[in-house]
């Protein structure tokens, strides 16, 4: 009996393994960036002046870009992949390094948002990898969106805290920034009013995110109830 794996099968398995490796690399690097930015935010450090972070972010963005081209190379429908993943490529460009090298004079709020662009790419990668944990299409989509929502909320809380702390008398610690984020995410509102431009932008992003994500709870619960209310098949 011939047990050799067909050439197409070996190529397909290699492509899947390669994509999976890059997905996990992106997720791990994203986690490191989140921890690094969180630490520097709480310590009030300027990442633009941190040569180690700038170098690390540059190479992380290179890995993100390689991940895009690996996925494009392994895809059976390259035109569709290019269209659907082009946004991922745009998020992978090391904008902060470009700004630093060209010595562009941008506002502090603009620079702080720019440093989160690679993290947005990482958040999408994390949501995709976590979505693999579910075999059900609806559950997988639900998990991905919840992951994006939680990461967006955390990033917004960091931005709000970094820009409002010391300026806004209502923000005296990170807990209050986290409370502001949670209340605006669920569209309830909060008694803390943003003062800075970045804080006001965050106050707009959060309820929009909540209004987009929370209806998925209804879709997921409906699908869950439907699947579990079906009578067992008779053998």
Number of domains: 2
Averaged pLDDT, please?
A: 79
Which word captures the global form? Answer: flat
Cα-to-Cα separation, first versus last residue: 36 Å
* Strand content range: under 5%
Instruction: State the order of secondary-structure elements, H for helix, E for strand.
Output: HHHHHHHHHH
Percent helix, as a range, is over 70%
* Low-pLDDT stretches: 1-5
Number of strands: 0
Radius of gyration: 21 Å
Structural class call reads mainly alpha
Can you count the helices?
10
Task: Characterize the main sheet.
Answer: none
Could you give the topology of this structure?
Blueprint: H1 7-42, H2 51-74, H3 78-92, H4 95-102, H5 108-114, H6 117-131, H7 137-164, H8 174-185, H9 197-213, H10 215-229
Folded structure, characterized:
With 235 residues, the chain is an all-alpha fold. It has two domains: 8-132; 137-226, Orthogonal Bundle (Helix Hairpins), CATH 1.10.287. It contains ten helices and no strands. The chain has helices at 7-42, 51-74, 78-92, 95-102, 108-114, 117-131, 137-164, 174-185, 197-213, 215-229. Mean pLDDT is 79; it is low at 1-5.
List keywords for this structure.
235 residues; flat; 0% strand; mainly alpha; disordered N terminus; 2 domains; Helix Hairpins; 10 helices
